[in-house]
Amino acid sequence: MMKNFSLIVAVCENGGIGIKGDLPWKLKQELKYFSRMTKKVQNPEKRNAIIMGRKTYFGVPESKRPLPDRLNIVLTRDPAANQYPDGVMVCTSMQEALSELDKGQVANEIENIWIVGGNAVYKEAMESDRCHRIYLTEIKQTFECDAFFPKITEDFRIVKNDDDVPEEIQEENGIKYQYKIYEKSSQK
Fold it and tell me: What is the pTM of this model?
C-alpha cells in the first residue's frame, strides 16, 4: 500500500530554512519538537522514515547522524561519492525512495514518512499526490539564509493543530515561533 507523507520544516520570515548547511537559529525546544514528531508512532513495533537530500544529511552534526530511531533515507544523484553508515538507505530519487518504502519488509516496518529537506526535496514532495501535510514552524524573525522553503501553493490550507502540537506562540532565546499545519486539499 502506498503511504502518504508529510513535510516538517522551520521557516523564518524571509522564507529561509538554512545557511551554510546549518540552521540559522538555535532553538532547542523546536529541535525537540522535530525529533518528537518524526519519531512518533501509534504502533510501538514500527518506526518512521525520514527522507532528506545529501546536503541536509551532512548538515546534521556528525555525532547525531544518522538521526536515531528512524530510517534515514538520503537522496543523492551520486551514491558512491560519499560513505554512509549501515542502516542509511541511499536512493537516487524521491520516486526510488518511495518505491522502496512501498515494498517488502520495509513497508511493514514503517508507520509514517517525513520529508525533512532541503529545498529541492521539499519542492518535489509538495508537488506529489502523496503529500498530505506540511508541519511548519513559523519563525517570527528574519535571518540571513542561503536555503529557502518553496512557496506554499494554493492547494494547501491551514488546519487545526494536532492535539500534541501547541497552537500558541512559543519563545526561546528571544525568538518567537509558532507551529502551523497545512493540509493538501487535492488528496486523491
Answer: 0.95
